[in-house]
Design goal:
heterodimer; A: alpha/beta; Rossmann fold; 4-stranded parallel sheet; 15 helices; globular; B: alpha/beta; Nucleotidyltransferase, domain 5; 4-stranded mixed sheet; 8 helices; 20% strand
Chain lengths: 386, 268
C-alpha cells in the first residue's frame, strides 16, 4: 500500500476510535476481562493506573446531543463541557467504566466530580488534589503524596499491588508514547507537514481511549511513514491553536477548511503540552511523577506564577513551527481560559501578532460562523486569501 | 470588462455588476445590482439575481469576465468556486467607496459585524455576533411582527419616541416577552419602538468596544436602511455615521465584485 494512503488509514482508524465513548477497542479490552477507569483531565498521572493493570480512558462526551440530564444539577455559569460530560454519564454512556479519577482542575470539574459521585455513584471514585502553584519542592512533595494516595486507594479497592517495577514499566510505556507524539509534532514543523491538525488531534485523543501498547505500535508505524510522505502543500497560512480542553475534530477541520493549516498547538487537553515531558526512572518514582506533571510539563493557566512561562512556551512553539498566526480557542464560561484570553490579547497587541479568538461550545455546531471568521482571518494575513 | 459579486446572505441574495474601464480601481463603476430573497438553494438565488442584474444592464452572462461569491451561501455555488468572506468584502467595498472609512458596522439578516480597517483599507480586526440573533435583521422582523407593523414602520415610529422604554434582555426571545409586557401595560408603540432600537444600538456598542471606534464610521447591510437604527446608533456611539454613495445593502456584493476583478487581474 502507498505510504500516504497508509498514513490516512491509520489517522482514520484513530478518528474512528474517538467517534464514540465506548469504541470497539475498549469493548474488546473489556470483553477480555480488562478494567477501565475514566479519567477527568490530563493532570491525572495515568502511569499509576497502567501499573495497576487498569486502562485509563479520558472522559469525552463525544456525540452528546443535549444537557437535559445535567441542567438541574449545574448552574448557568458552569461550562458546557462539564454539563455534557455529566449528561452522558447520567444517560449511561460511560457505564463501561469501573471507576473514576478526577483532579481539582477547576471549580466546574470539581462540581462535575461531586455530582457524578453523589448522584450517579460510580463503583470507585478518587479525587486527586493537584497543587495550584508551580515553583518549589513543597508542591512537588505534596503532589507525590497525593499520587501515593491514589496508588493506595486503587490497591485497596481493586485488590491489586502496584510494585515499583510495574510502575517503572508503566512510566517507560507512557514515556514512549510521549516520545512518539513529540516526534510527530516535530515532523509537522516542516514546510509540508505530513498530517493535518485535525488528524493530529485524532492521534492525540486516540491515545486516551485504547490500550497503550496497541496505540504505541500504531504510532511507531505512523511516525516512520510520516518521515517519507510528500506532505501537505495546499494551505494558505500556518497557525498555532492555543486553548483549553478542545476535543472536536470537526472544529479543527472547520478551521483547516479555510486554508489555515494547524501546524502546532498549545492545548490544555489533548495537545503537545501533554507530550512535552519525560519522566525520570532514577530515584523515587512518585517524586519523579510529581516533578514531571507539575514542574516539567509546560504550565497551564491553572498554575499560579506561570504566566510568563506560558507565553514563552507559546511563542517558542509558534516560532519553531514557522507559524503565521495564532488562533485562540476556548469554551465560554471557562474561568481559566477566559482569563488567559485577556492575557493573550495584551501580548498580541504588544507584539502586533496575527491572531483570531474563536469560542465554541463543547459540542461544536456553529460551523458557518467559525468558517467565516477563519476565512476572514486568513484573508487578512494573505491579502485576499490568495 | 464586467465583473460580478454575489453576496448570498441569510435573507437576501445581492448581486452587483461592476464595469472596469481601466487598470486603476477608480475606473470601476456599478452598472446594475439586484436583490433576491434567499431561497432554499444559494445556487438558485445566485442564478436569479445574476440574471436580473445582467438583464438590467443589457448584457449576457458570457460577457462577465469574473465572478466572486460571499455571504453564508458563498461556498455552495458550484459555478462560482471563488469566494471571499463577507468581512473582507465589506472592507474592500467600503474602502473603495469611501477611502476614509475606518470602521464598518454591518447589520445583516442574521449577522452583525464590526470591522476595523487600516489606512490602506485592509481589515485589521473584526467582531461578529455569536449564535444569538439579537441586534440583527431577524430581531427587527420579530419585533415588527409583535408590534404588528413593518420593519420600515418600526424605524419610523422609533424616530418619534420621546422616552423610549427599557428593553434589557440581550436575547431575542426574551426581548419579545418584554415588548409584549409593555404592550399589555398600554405603553405607546413609538416608545416601545424607540426602546427596541436603543437596545440594538447598545448591543452594537458592545461589539464596537471590542474592536475600537475610529472615524469615518459607516453603517452597511440591509438594516442600514432603517433610519431609526442610524439615529439610535449615532446617539449611542456619539459619532455621526458617514453615508456610502450606494445602497448600503449591496456593500458586500460590491466588495465581492472588486475581488473578482482583482483575481482576474492576478491571473492575467
Amino acid at each position: 500500500m502507498d505510504k500516504a494512503m497508509r498514513v490516512r488509514e491509520i489517522c482514520d482508524s484513530f478518528r474512528e476510535l474517538c467517534s464514540v465513548p465506548y469504541n470497539e477497542s475498549l469493548q474488546s479490552y473489556k470483553n477480555d476481562g480488562g478494567l477501565i477507569i475514566g479519567v477527568l483531565y490530563n493532570q491525572v498521572p495515568e502511569e499509576i493506573l497502567t501499573a495497576a493493570g487498569i486502562l485509563p480512558v479520558r472522559i469525552r462526551a463525544v456525540g452528546s446531543q443535549g444537557t437535559e440530564a445535567s441542567d438541574a444539577r449545574f448552574t448557568q455559569v458552569n461550562c458546557s463541557l462539564v454539563k455534557h460530560f455529566y449528561d452522558s454519564a447520567a444517560k449511561g454512556r460511560f457505564d463501561f467504566i469501573d471507576g473514576l479519577v478526577a483532579t481539582n482542575g477547576c471549580d466546574h470539574v470539581r462540581k462535575l466530580h461531586e455530582n457524578w459521585t453523589s448522584v450517579l455513584k460510580p463503583a470507585y471514585s478518587h479525587l486527586l488534589c493537584f497543587p495550584k502553584r508551580q515553583g518549589d519542592d513543597l508542591q512537588v512533595t505534596q503532589l507525590a503524596k497525593e499520587i501515593k494516595k491514589l496508588k493506595e486507594s486503587i490497591e485497596a479497592h481493586f485488590g491489586v499491588e502496584i510494585t515499583d517495577e510495574a510502575l517503572r514499566e508503566a512510566i517507560k510505556l507512557h514515556n514512549r508514547t510521549r516520545e512518539l507524539q513529540c516526534a510527530l509534532y516535530e515532523l509537522r514543523k516542516g514546510e509540508n507537514p505530513p498530517i493535518t491538525g485535525a488528524q493530529m488531534l485524532a492521534v492525540m485523543m486516540a491515545g486516551t481511549c485504547m490500550p497503550r501498547e496497541a496505540y504505541n505500535a500504531q504510532l511507531e508505524e505512523l511516525v516512520a511513514l510520516c518521515q517519507d510522505v510528500e506532505g501537505i502543500s495546499d494551505y494558505k497560512v500556518r497557525v498555532v491553536v492555543y486553548g483549553g480542553e478542545i476535543d472536536s475534530i470537526d472544529f479543527f477541520e472547520a478551521i483547516e477548511s479555510q486554508g489555515a493549516l494547524i501546524v502546532a498547538d498549545s492545548l490544555g487537553g489533548y495537545g503537545k503540552r501533554s507530550a512535552d515531558m519525560q519522566i525520570s526512572l532514577e530515584g523515587d518514582l512518585y517524586t519523579n511523577l510529581a516533578n514531571a506533571y507539575l514542574m516539567e510539563r509546560p504550565a497551564e493557566p491553572r498554575l499560579h506564577g506561570t504566566r510568563a512561562a506560558r507565553w514563552e512556551y507559546l511563542e517558542k512553539v509558534a516560532e519553531e513551527a514557522n507559524a503565521d498566526g495564532f488562533i485562540q480557542v476556548f469554551i465560554p464560561i471557562c474561568d481559566l481560559w477566559g482569563y488567559e484570553r485577556v492575557m493573550f490579547a495584551t501580548e498580541v497587541e504588544k507584539k502586533d501578532l496575527n491572531c483570531l479568538v474563536l469560542d465554541t461550545e463543547y459540542i461544536f455546531t456553529a460551523s458557518g460562523q467559525t468558517r467565516t471568521r477563519v476565512q476572514a482571518f486568513v484573508e487578512s494575513i494573505t491579502e485576499g486569501g490568495r | 470588462m464586467y465583473f460580478i459579486g454575489c453576496d448570498l446572505g441569510s435573507t437576501t441574495g445581492k448581486v452587483v455588476l461592476l464595469e472596469s474601464l481601466g487598470d486603476a480601481v477608480d475606473s470601476c463603476r456599478i452598472v446594475s445590482w439586484a436583490l433576491e430573497p434567499s431561497g432554499f438553494s444559494p445556487e438558485e438565488t445566485a442564478d436569479l439575481a445574476i440574471n436580473r442584474a445582467c438583464e438590467q444592464a443589457g448584457i449576457s452572462r458570457d460577457q462577465v469576465a469574473g465572478f466572486c461569491c460571499t455571504g453564508y451561501g458563498r461556498e455552495h455555488v458550484s459555478a462560482i468556486p471563488y469566494n471571499v468572506s463577507e468581512i473582507s468584502c465589506h472592507g474592500k467595498s467600503a474602502s473603495f467607496l469611501l477611502p476614509s472609512a475606518r470602521t464598518i458596522i454591518d447589520v445583516g439578516g442574521q449577522d452583525v459585524k464590526v470591522i476595523a480597517l487600516g489606512k490602506t483599507g485592509k481589515v485589521v480586526d473584526f467582531a461578529m455576533n455569536d449564535k444569538c440573533a439579537a441586534g440583527t435583521g431577524k430581531f427587527f422582523e420579530a419585533m415588527a411582527r409583535t408590534l404588528r407593523c413593518t420593519v420600515e414602520e418600526l424605524g419610523e415610529m422609533s424616530l418619534q419616541s420621546v422616552a423610549p422604554v427599557s428593553i434589557s434582555s440581550t436575547c431575542s426571545v426574551f426581548a419579545e416577552s418584554e415588548v409584549i409586557s409593555h404592550i399589555n401595560k398600554g405603553v405607546d408603540r413609538c416608545e416601545i419602538a424607540g426602546g427596541i432600537h436603543e437596545s440594538i444600538a447598545r448591543r452594537l456598542m458592545a461589539m464596537v468596544n471590542r474592536v475600537g471606534l475610529t472615524e469615518d464610521v459607516v453603517l452597511t447591510g440591509g438594516c442600514a436602511k432603517n433610519k431609526g437604527l442610524r439615529v439610535a446608533l449615532e446617539k449611542m456611539i456619539k459619532v455621526e455615521l458617514t453615508e456610502i454613495p450606494c445602497d448600503p445593502q449591496i456593500n458586500g456584493a460590491l466588495g465581492a465584485a472588486l475581488y473578482a476583478r482583482d483575481a482576474y487581474d492576478g491571473e492575467k
